[in-house]
Design goal:
Distance between the termini of chain A: 61 Å
Number of domains of chain A: 2
Shape of chain A: globular
Strand content of chain A: 25-35%
CATH topology of the largest domain in chain A: Methyltransferase, Cobalt-precorrin-4 Transmethylase, Domain 2
Number of helices of chain A: 8
Structural class of chain A: alpha/beta
Strand order of the largest sheet of chain A: 3-2-4-1-5
Helix content of chain A: 25-40%
Oligomer: homodimer
Largest sheet of chain A: 5 strands, parallel
Largest interface: A-B, 80 and 81 residues
CATH superfamily of the largest domain in chain A: Tetrapyrrole methylase, C-terminal domain
Number of strands of chain A: 13
Chain lengths: 254, 254
Amino acid sequence: MSGRLAIVGLGPGDHRYLTPEARAALDAADVLYGYGPYLDRVSERAGQARHASGNRVEGARAQDALNEAAAGAQVAMVSGGDPGVFAMAAAVCGEIETGPQAWRALDIVVIPGITAMLAVAARAGAPLGHDFCAISLSDNLKPWDLIEKRLDAAAAAGFVIALYNPISKARPWQLGHAFTRLAQHLAPSTPVVFGRAMGRADEALTVTTLDQAGEVKADMATLVIIGSAETRVIARDGKAPLVYTPRVAAAVTA
Amino acid sequence: MSGRLAIVGLGPGDHRYLTPEARAALDAADVLYGYGPYLDRVSERAGQARHASGNRVEGARAQDALNEAAAGAQVAMVSGGDPGVFAMAAAVCGEIETGPQAWRALDIVVIPGITAMLAVAARAGAPLGHDFCAISLSDNLKPWDLIEKRLDAAAAAGFVIALYNPISKARPWQLGHAFTRLAQHLAPSTPVVFGRAMGRADEALTVTTLDQAGEVKADMATLVIIGSAETRVIARDGKAPLVYTPRVAAAVTA
């Protein structure tokens, strides 16, 4: 029997974001692979094996899952958010490209999920309502000067910017440097949104401005959105403000 | 009783992408608003009113929905894909900002959905696996020179680019111009993915290269992804190729 590897996006937080397609793929699997905290979000089912692993072993995890699929199993690899956004889908493709020919013959299915920037943007209003970009701030897999180049290009061209992996114990200074860098292009009053753990009990949303953003605590579960010059904040009595970027943009002046 | 407006992302295509949160919001609504083809995707329910409108009247549709919520109704505005990505959430926020004070007192809830670029990327492999941006190619609401500036900035800085609203009867030349512009920065062999109507009966995915991309038919339901210099294509016998962008990026050389 031919094996199959489904790379499944759980979305952020709890089951409210889990699509029917993702649910069906999890139900159909003989065996689940994934980073431990993501696997913990999937209900256990009798007869379904589970292999949890750490967050620094994507390559080994992908190889194990591909080997098991090549042996004929129906395998699901779970991923938080969307598996194609700074997550496992690219890691699996990388292993297929360099691995045994048998892996290319497998059914590989990627099942999209709500990625963190969409969940955070929704909670804040519509900050991604106009052209935007997503940048991973981790310099584990790319040099810091490339990240700076992309921050400069994105801010100068008027993109709203979503920052993934903003900070960790091993990368404590990068987020602050990014704000300093962006301040060369953007006004101090530019809206900045911090969203953490959307859909979970410890969910938190903070709306601030670029000149104050360095004071806000962030961690690996935080997604940061920096507005463009067009991004606006609507104050509301007794309610959270709405942050949005209009669909209409002015002509290039610079 | 206090009214509520939920702006609900249906995801692309059929119900496989509809999250439990979106489903619950649709079920809880007294009245639905939306562009006709999106409303058609929502099952009818006795006692629930429906107001379909055309795709050029976002402002009027938002005002009608806000007025009905202000009168105490539970209103859902449906949106294809994610409502925060080139869709209704920013239009509603814009009306709230300039509208009567009562609209600011409403419960406004945005419910995220699978946006087209995530669905198309998943079907192709993992082309958005590294830093990427989303640009609407419509020059109805912004000048073409701003779009060109963003295409230049994104390609030169190594972002993968997702193009929304690539073409329409009223905008027949813009997509071809975008490919020509991008060819100033990217190799002719750069992978390009066209995805149309993911999850629908007429779903289509085409993988080509930048120098051939102008030959591929596209329409308003098409989402185009242009790779970066790092994006790769894995050929597979008897199966669709896998397109992916590795998580690892090299140092800046330019």
